[in-house]
Design brief:
Blueprint lengths: L20 H4 L4 H10 L4 H5 L1 H5 L1 H7 L1 H6 L2 H10 L4 H12 L2 H19 L9 H18 L2 H5 L4 H25 L7 H14 L1 H21 L3 E6 L11 H15 L2 E8 L6 H6 L1 E9 L6 E11 L2 E7 L1 H4 L8 H22 L5 E5 L5 H6 L12 E6 L7 E3 H8 L17 E3 H8 L2 E4 L2 H6 L10 H6 L4 E3 L26 H16 L8 E6 L8 H11 L4 E6 L4 H13 L4 E4 L4 H10 L2 E4 L9 H7 L3 E5 L2 H6 L13 E3 L4 H17 L1 H13 L5 H14 L3
Parallel strand pairs: 1-2, 1-6, 2-5, 6-7, 7-10, 10-11, 12-13, 12-15, 13-14, 15-16, 16-17
Antiparallel strand pairs: 3-4, 4-5, 8-9
Bound molecules: adenosine-5'-diphosphate.
Amino acid sequence: MARKKASSVKKKPATTKVAAPAAEKAASVEEKAISAVTETAPTEEKKEPAAKETVSAEKKTAPVAEKAAPAEEKKVSAVKETVPAAEKTAVAAEKAASPEEKKELPVKKTVSAKEKTVPAAPEAPPVEEKKKTPAKKTAPAKEKMDPAAAKTTPAEGKKRTSAKKAASAEEKAVSAAAKAVPAKGKKRTSAKKAASVEEKSAPAAVEAASAVEEVSAVNVMSNLPRRSVAFIGSECHPFVKTGGLGDVMYALPRELVRLNCDVRVILPRYACIPQKYQDQMVYRGEFYMDLGKTGRNYYVGIMEYVCDGVVYDFIDNQEFFSSGNPYLNLVDDIPKYCFFSKAALAALNYLNWIPDIVHCHDWQAALVPVYLRTLFQDSPIGHARSILTIHNLRFQGIYNIPTIQYWSGLPDSVFGMGALKENYVDANMLKGGLAYADRITTVSGTYAYEIQTAEYGEHLENHLRYHSGKLRGIVNGIDYGMWNPETDSALTVHYNRDTVLEHKMENKLALQKELGLEEDAGKFVIGLISRLTNQKGLDLVSSIIPQVLDGNTQVVVLGTGDKQYEDTFRYYEGANRGTFSACIQYDEARAHRIYAGADALLVPSRFEPCGLTQLNAMHYGTLPIVRETGGLKDTVQPYNIFTGDGNGFTFDRYDAGLLLDAINRAKTLYFTNRDQWNQVVRRDMEKDVSWENSAKQYKDLYLELTQW
Ligand code: ADP
């Protein structure tokens, strides 16, 4: 993502869709934007957001009023009816309820939980029947749907099933969360295990006990205030991922669903998204939107995919998203993400889904808070609060002012030094977003501090210091569903904390075999999984490889990136066959096998906002060797030779000698005090690096921002 500059800007012709002629006739560009955005929203909703929140509930209770609505509105509400049933009923109930009613909700849920767990009770309605009720409600709405709209819905048949799936997924998520809550502090799995042990020994007692447990779980769950959040970002596992941002966009929404949040993730519909996901997407609608000073209306399609209670809405436009890679060069990326940021907000208006919070990520979505407070201020979405999360301050979306003005269409007022203006020539999209966001977060406490200094501030340190009152660091976690050595399908042998010592050896031998290394469980295997860029401390690594390869040590590198590093590691592989492996590729499954098979993992970054590889490594019983910066400092406590405390090996200054020293300390412990090493392995596997704590902090932030 080099900050390339071009003297001229590509103005691409429309290749895919022709703009609607009626829309083209609209008087001014500004008006067009607003009309595209608000066209489908009912009039009252435009004026009164609080009233709008109750609309979905009202619609159900007042079908007559709904019938009287104009045809256009009917079409939208028909589309709305395909929203996951469980989600809809929950939101509607929550939003429509008066404060007194809201207080009563938990009690109602408690009763239903009791009923669920005591099937013998005659008055309890069967769970199946309950599930069907909202589904029935969706049917007539679908019938009402405008036939024209039906024609434009190729995946119509799939819609019903996906809505049902979504409903059941939502229910699953809720029940999973409910189970997790009573364990307070304990891990979910252990709570489950404990329950199943009890079940075997005393089935009768268990029925009562589990009923109580589930009742209290539902109580806690329903006591959590509900908030709706739209995540807007440029990548998300498993659709498209180039680094940690993709992991966060995947895991955090799922965890927030467990904390009683209603989450929608808005992403570009890149052509490179695997076909199996493309096939499962359901058409949710389309509209045309003006963009900047282009004088054109651009097609915005909305394709939806629902999984585990999270709704993913993909913004479709082949003109912007047809390349095989999400990021190309700034000449293409600036227009692409101006379009995406604006289209994401317009899509939320179009869907008539107005979240409490719009949570944007990195420079690609940084214009969202700016749009919210300017072009979209008077539209329904203008009432949402915004959070901008910095995953990596190095990438900021800087380009010359006229180009960003041209594509964004933002008013001149935002191009001042307090917002987008970077210097006399350039505008900075991230800088503008930081100025306009209601809150700024970054992915660790140390990085939140570091970016306010000249060393790590990437020239934004003054701007960040100015906005430090709204800046906060929340460390990332990892998704235990995706990263779990006990169930990981990529591994040769599964293991947990109790079996790690023997089974890690087997994974090590399998890894050595896979990579053509000498198969010897006694060798100390060091892994490195990384984008190969100068952020990651690879110059340090490459300068000490000869000293590291001492005959008892093997090194495995997995990554792609700058040619100089790729070539260096290829060279080392050629020169050290059997002891050094350079996998110059992006391979998820192999990454999992390296986490499981290696003894230690290197993360000697020059700077590291959070870093996920050290968390993955610890969870797989692989000890991290890291530089004390950013999230690495916050998550890896250095091993103390005197007390035996700690969970990895660290060094502070960016210096190859200190890295070598840290590696040697790790080796010394491994070869001379294996018992102690094994204790650290177990401790690392026990360490809570899940999203649970971090997601709670995000939820608290959402509540802090929306205290109505
Ligand atoms: P960054 O976001 O700066 O790239 P992080 O440590 O935050 O670094 O996240 C990197 C994520 O990408 C981890 O989940 C890591 O396992 C994964 N990853 C990095 N490179 C590769 C690769 N070559 N193959 C597979 N996964 C990779």
